[in-house]
Amino acid sequence: MVATQDAVFGELTEEGPNYRAVGWKGAVVLMLKTQIGLGVLSIPEVFDVLGLIPGVICLVAIAICTSWSGYIVGVFKVRHPDVYGLDDVGRKILGRFGYESFGIAFALFCIFVAGSGILGIATDLNALSSHGACTAIFVAVAAVVGFSLGSIQTLGRISWLAWVGTISILVSILILTVSVGVQDRPSAAPLEGEFKSNYKLFGSPDAAGAFAALSSIVFAYAGVPAYFNIVSEMRDPRDFTKSLIYCQTIMSAVYIAIGVVVYYYCGSYVASPALGSAGPLMKKVCYGIALPGLIVSTTMYIHFAAKYFFIRFLRGTSHLARNTKIHWMTWFGCTGSVAGIAYIIASAIPVFGGLVSLVGALLGTLICFQPMGGMWLYDHWNKPRSAKWMLMVFWCFFIIISGTFLMVSGTYGSVVGIIDSYNKSGGSAAWSCADNSNSS
């Protein structure tokens, strides 16, 4: 029996799951699927709020910041092999307070994203079936599927699903992009008269709208903390930087290309999510092709949150990396609980879109910016002072301060959006049967 020792999982043998099976290509597709979901389809609406030029500039700036954050994740893991997730980082930097707060923030963020994914699957099924069943039934079905696939033990085995999910969402948004370019007018535009896109190079949003738009961009890049899970399950974590470069380059190119083209042709008549922008028929086509991508996104975030609790409960015991009864009971208990909470969130909370935006602004920004600046300072604060050191210290404080600003301002914008939604519609009903795909 061949055994290897891992600083997180302990002794890995053939009698248990192989938690170190992800290659660099698998890491690329896992990171892409962690990031690219229907979040990309909010980018055209962001450009409508900010204007095309400021929107692209803001997107590139946030891409640079989050790419650096991702790079620091890989470097920190290599330097500290005992780190598996953001909670371990918090323990090193801030002790028990950091361990609890970073871990809970990451778990809550993943659970709310999983809830968003469950609702997205229900929306997809509504669009495909022309509301063929009660939406509450579709939400329950989505939760069961998310639990089933999220219970796959290792990211190495999930990586093949990530290939399917990434390809499906990319093909879907490519079809959408082509469709809005060749059609006469977007589906939300007036049916009579000549249509001309009213896209704006520069927008004039109020403060709340601008902050909410920036939060949407951050949310589209908010998979960075999950990179810890991915690099920790790579065969060679030193290959992580190569995977990161491929991922961030592909993802940013997709975001800019899709956002610019869809907004250029649709203007303010772009739907959100944008899959409904090309009319009823193409809406069904795009949603049908995107369905595997939505399922895989939900699967991964259920898995990430469950793995956080699983490792916390069993770390340091022989059950973590062996197929014992306690191992399986704990694992299914974690995945079932996460999927159940995500289902309740997706079903029960009114103004769900606004609430997810709020959690993205409050928790997504918190775990994408500030910890990474702290990680570099933790490793280098006592190093010899030099011009490069001073420049990096300035950069880290810029990351921490800008992340805090985006967190506070984005939270403000999201709260204003929730209040406006309640004032207009009074919120949405819990466990509703109503068709939730018409707004798309």
Automatic annotation (TrEMBL):
Gene3D superfamilies, alphabetized: Amino acid/polyamine transporter I
Can you say where in the cell this protein is located? Membrane
> What keywords does the record list, in alphabetical order?
Membrane, Transmembrane, Transmembrane helix
Domain of life, per UniProt, equals Eukaryota
Please report the record's description of how this protein sits within the membrane: Multi-pass membrane protein
Give the GO cellular component terms, alphabetically. membrane
A GO molecular function assigned to this protein is:
L-amino acid transmembrane transporter activity
Q: Where are the transmembrane segments?
A: 52-76, 97-122, 128-149, 161-182, 207-231, 243-265, 285-306, 326-345, 351-369, 389-408
Amino acid transporter transmembrane domain location: 23-415
Which PANTHER family does the entry mention? AMINO ACID TRANSPORTER, AMINO ACID TRANSPORTER (EUROFUNG)
Q: Which family does it belong to?
A: Belongs to the amino acid/polyamine transporter 2 family.
Name of the protein in question: Amino acid transporter transmembrane domain-containing protein
The taxonomic lineage of its organism, from the top, reads: Eukaryota, Fungi, Dikarya, Ascomycota, Pezizomycotina
